[in-house]
Amino acid sequence: LLGPFNGFLRTPAISGPQLDWAQAISAGGLPDDVREAAILTVGAQWKAAYVLYAHSLAARKAGISDHDIDALRSARGEPAGVSPEAKLAHRLTVAIVRDHDVPDDLYGEVVETFGEPATVTLVALVGQYLVTSALLTCFRVPAPPDQSA
Questions:
Q1: Residue 97 carries which DSSP code?
Q2: In sequence order, what are the residues at sequence separation of 6 or more whose Cβ sits closer than 8 angstroms to the Cβ of residue 133?
Q3: CB 39 within 8 A of CB 125
Q4: Please, are residues 48 and 73 in contact by the beta-carbon 8 Å criterion?
Q5: Could you say which of 79, 99, 113, 115 would form a disulfide bridge with 71 (CB–CB 3.0 to 4.6 Å)?
Q6: Which residue stretches of 1-149 are H helix?
Q7: pTM, whole model, 2 decimals?
Q8: What are the Cα distances from residue 13, in Å, to 1, 17, 98, 123?
């Protein structure tokens, strides 16, 4: 198997609830571009090659341009051409993952834009990919050699 799944197979007592949590987050209704912007931002901060590989593909399917995917993958600056919601998700994710602090004005903007339930879903998504990136980094899971897919 590719990605984090080999690690999860070693721990069924953890991986089952982890899968349930991931499915609940996926059912949370975040737009695809918002999801992928947040996931790529986490992957970039962790330098998680497999996350960056897999979610670059998903980001393209979500309508994010190659230029903006490169910006999200670089961990520098903001993607210019994404939706305002995806840009906000990126900013929130950077605040959580890199800065370890969400300023009050950013929090207010996120809640105003997404509402409280989707804000919780977005923060949980960031947490899910922090766990995923940690597993991938710890077990040195690479991206596939042919990334032209």
A1: I
A2: 42, 43, 45, 46, 48, 51
A3: yes
A4: no
A5: 79
A6: 5-9, 12-26, 32-46, 49-61, 66-74, 84-94, 104-114, 116-138
A7: 0.92
A8: 19, 7, 30, 24
Q: What is the pLDDT of residue 149?
A: 46
Cα torsion for 18, 61, 95, 17, to the nearest 10°? 0
For residues 28 and 105, give the distance between their C-alpha atoms in angstroms, rounded to a whole number. 24
Please, are residues 43 and 138 in contact by the beta-carbon 8 Å criterion?
no
Record the tokens describing residue 38, joined without a space.
Answer: 């947040």
32-46 vs 84-94: helix axis angle to the nearest 10? 30
**Would you give per-residue pLDDT tens digits along the chain (149 residues)?**
677 777 777 888 988 898 899 999 999 999 999 999 999 999 999 999 999 999 999 999 999 999 999 999 997 778 999 999 999 999 999 999 999 999 999 999 999 999 999 999 999 999 999 999 998 888 888 888 865 54
